Give the backbone structure.
Amino acid sequence: MIDEDLAEYMLDAASKHTPVLAEVRLESTSCMQLALKAGQVDTIASSQDAGMNVKIFFASGVGFSSSNVVSKAEGLRLVRQAVSQAKSARRKSPCTLSAEKAVRTSWEVRQKKSLADVTTEEKLDYLRSLDSAALKTGVKVQGRYYDLKDWETTRFFGNSEGSRIKSFIPRMKVESYNLVSAKGETEQSMREWAGSGGWELKDEWNLLEVLPDEMRMLKKQIEHGKRVKPGKCDLVCGSEVTGIAAHESCGHPMEGDRIQGREMSQAGRSFISEDMIGQRLGSKYATVIDDPGIPGSYGYYAYDEEGVKARPRYLYKEGLINEFLHNRETGSKMGLVSNGSSRAESYLREPIVRMGNTFVAPGDFEEDELFGTVKDGVLMNSFTEWNIDDKRYNQKYVSREAYFIKDGELAGPARKCTIEITTPAFWSAIDAVTKKVRFDAAECGKGDPGQGMSVFTGGPMLRLRGVSLR
Amino acid sequence: MNELKEISQHVVEVARSAGADDVVAEAIVTEVKQVRFSNSQVDAVNSWSEEHLALLVAIGKKVISSDIRTLTDLDPHARALVSLAKKVPPSKTYEGVAPGRFKYRRNPVDGMIVKLRDPSRFVHEAIAGAEGFGANNVGGTFYAIHERVGLASSGGAVGADESTAADLSVRAFSQPEASGHAVCCTPTLTGMEAKKTGERAGEFASHARDPVMGEQGKFDLIVDPLFLGSFIQSTSSMLSAMRVEISNSMYAKKIGKRVASDEVTFLDDPTIRSTTRRAFDHEGVPTRRNVLIKDGVLKTYLHNTGTAKRFKTRTTANAGPLIPSAYGSAAQPMAFHPVVVPGDWKMDELIADTKRGLYINNTWYTRYQNYSTGEFSTIPRDAILRVENGEIVGAVKNIRISDNMMNFWKSIDALSRKAQEIYWWEEAAPPSTLPTVRAKQMTITRSA
């Protein structure tokens, strides 16, 4: 239960210091974690957490103070501490915030089957069924680790401008690690499925078929995969590869705080600057959207951590740099309002600019049409190793599952196909996009201390012409 | 501290009375102050206070753990967890808690860190230091951390520990694509060299001016301790017996075999003066200096009580937190303070001895195709200085190291005589004491 009176008490105490803005967040979370290692129960852990924070904005600085002790006395201590910290910042340029409407509302994600009603034994049985499905394939799976985590979070947000927002969001995720071996070689698979909702999410994931297919696919990659001859050819990206590219080389460089330098010593800066809005970065087929409002998504939220209503943001639009992700502080610096991008991992961390669900907009091609005009190319369905530099300009993806395309038809497996490419080169090479969008769940890393953030990445299949592969 | 020890002892008694066979209780109180800065000014001053009790209970082989996020009125929580344990299925691989009554070292605590009121002054000193070397844009973080722990177990362990740490991370830019990064990690505030850290970052940024596109090919790499810290993260994690058990490590089945060059001796030593000195692991076993790789040969994995029994050896006192992280188990073995034993090279000798190489300040985003084989790539950042015929001749940008991690460790032929404690964000982690090293003929790639 959230003590809303405590939040009011803290806001009253904070307002006496006449800040530009005071924010208070109260939160409680219940969590269950289970893991199965090589078929055996490895971990069962359950926790209940509750805590609160205060964020104070003065023109001269920002102070954030949090605690997992929930009481009036602690609330008052947090307010005093945040005020003192904000005053100690002594900023040269004043801290400003965009003007936003005060909101009084509540929102929640409903569960068809409540996570709290599913027993530990049922959850473990589910993990066991995944493990045995992988084993029944007959593929030699020498590494087997599966974990399941579900958690329900209740939050209350209030600020000195009158916003009061209550929310409830349940989430569940399954992670798998597998190492498949054949012919004395191995291939690794580390995957994640997650969403907002209840126990019904597992039915959508269909892992009893997906995981065995993954084992069989990896075995084929080892047994029949051939290396790509280095050079230029066409590349078709499956939605998993599309999604990671959208997240890494569009979502991240379009974060307002990164562009303004706030993450410069950690996650880095951006090759994009404030004055590049409207500049061309990709072909007309490159439209990338970040939309926190996708029902059931892992990155779902209705209002952000500053009480701003979430909405779709068109980051790249038909190849042009269109809209950055903003909170109230970064938006204000550009003379704009927030577009609802403020998120925090928990009450213990300061809210910062984050993505929700980032994906490439669908086009008008059917999937089988995409290969028709490819004489010599590769379909990269999924990736293993990947990275991108801290200005988000040079990225690399190595395939987990890939196939050659010869004269418009899929040929045999291509093993460890690698693309190493700049961001403009990737988005400029697209000349066709399919209709169907698929999503993958991921944990996005940013902030200091690091805040793992629940997101979807995704999109349709993309066709890139004449890119260098090896 | 005794109060936390007593809380843990009491919880062990309550859980035992409720029917638990094995219990480990660890009460933890943490106070953290942080200053974040960028564009040469403070962005936010943050603080967080946490008090909680990590509790593991077992009835036979039925095991469950919980993070109880309070230190008051714990009895109902302990009894509830024992009730839950009765309902969970057994874990066949559970091997019990560490038996024994132990004596622990007392670690010194810095009262100045505990009482620190205005950490911003260190940030202003660091910014001034970097700007003195030509930086025009400086960012980073300053942390002051105070942690107290009390632990008790049904095996007989009862102990208390306390630690303090101050960490400063400074990234300085002299041009939009020319930067340097330096850190200072110290258990006492008197060891905080804020200005000097800023100066070092500024000096790197100055050397990194006007970078040109890097070339592909084979280069000898001289890597700063900060860079090496990023490799230590994945390398030390793969030395955990838990990672070995699930074939998620290039060190599986390699005990007694060569896994690095003769020059490399790799330890985990939480007993030395550092920001992560600790008296006991999360099972209450006294920590010790463990030689993991000696003269290039793998000697042991990191163990807790359970993995040690399964591997028919003794625990190395590396049990990790009782509450698991992603892809992790309760008490999963982990390194607390990795150390690479320094060599005998001076820095100027290392550079003078290199014909075609790169001197690299930092890296990030180290990712693996396959942990069991070690293929990886990483993206150098901050100063990447070209070395030709023993001299630094300029800076490069936009390169990637695409190689094999086992090959990296086997290719090390020189280590500096000086070592430094480093920690940066969650890339160069856990806090480690490392020299500068040279790895021969590593593969550099770049965007086509």
